[in-house]
Task: structure prediction
Amino acid sequence: MRAAGRTGAAPADGGRGIFTPELLDRCISCGFCLPACPTYVRTGVETSSPRGRIDLMRALESGELPDDDPTVQEESSFCLGCRACEPVCPAGVQYGALLEEWRDHTWHAGRARGSLRRRALLAPLLWAANRPWRLRIMGLVRRPARRRAGREGADGTGGHQLMLGCFERALFPKVSRAAVELLPDLQVDPRQGCCGALHAHNGDVARGERLATDLADRPGRIVSTAGGCAAHLAAVAGRDRVLDYSEALLERGPVPGPIIVDGRPARIGLQDSCHLRNGLGVSAAPRNVLDTLGDYVEIPGAGDCCGAAGTYAILRPRDSRRVLAAKLAALTDLDLDFLVVMNPGCQRQLMKAVRRARLRTKVVHLAELVASARAGHR
Result:
């Protein structure tokens, strides 16, 4: 669960009330986060590390730096928000929550050119995700999974309900259809709205939490096919309410397989979803599923960000491509049949990259590959 009272928290002594004090004070500046941070590894610049950014947050909180300071504006945007610093932090710093508070403040208080540009680029996405009826219109043509009757759970709470990702239902509607095919007792309500991850990650924490709360008010546990959505919803509603699709598959089992390509088990790799791995702690479950589907190949740096990072690829395309470069080099060497993803942003990013590089590897969501195995793909 998120720390209570994050939005509008009481300021620390002499502070401005931008950040929740107990979150900001937890960092001990040890530096364990430095080698885990993709922007620090690429630049070697201290302010582009989690430790350096927390120092900027502290200076912003104390008033030492103004809201429109160029470094403050740049670093809040340059950060991928991948949260790779969290699993390696001995002090348990909730960096993702701090980053959301930082972006929330710069969104509402910032007037620098970068902030205004960010607003302009994100406005259409946030507008579309703000109301459930707009999301339904997005899905009318693409036809994601529709309503199905699901059996009630043993505790009378309504069993499981599939969360339809906002843009996943428009960009990759086959994912939700495959998810329901494999787990036919999932309840699907097309009237559901956005989980709020898009808002919280980009500067509107309060709206993001309200949308997550609205979605969590539905009974039963929620199954997600989007890592970023799952992590955000779990932070608001509680981890016990949220399952990643790979966890639901293993819970319901058995998983079909294997997939045969040219008379041999398919070579399959996985790109972790950053928020799923670092925020929700889910990394073993998808690998356990893939082990049954073919010859699983661990990609070097599979847990490193692919550069999609939600809206990062839209807001900072050049930096996104630089982060992606090392990933693409590894994929070229491995010559995989399938590259499996757990998040629509990663899927879009890697599909475009693989197509540009003219690799034979096919990028698919886990649900799509499992459905293909069930259909007897050869």
In short: The longest strand covers residues 160-163. Strands lie at 160-163, 187-188, 221-224, 242-244, 260-261, 264-265, 267-270, 295-296, 338-341, 362-365.
